[in-house]
Amino acid sequence: MNQPELTQQALSILRSPDHFRWYVIPLLALVIYVYTNEISKKNWKGIAAGLSLYLVHFLCYDWKPKV
Q: 25 lies in which domain range?
């Protein structure tokens, strides 16, 4: 059960920045900008639509396989 070679390999992959997807940062910045803009306009229906779309994806892809 104790395999130090595999443990070291897993830790080297975990700490390596090569697996980080850098497109996530501008995408997250865009999402934050859009939500901030919609909140300043008080467009609550648009915010609710975005959050409900996220909720549907969460329920279908993340929560459903765990049930």
A: 21-66
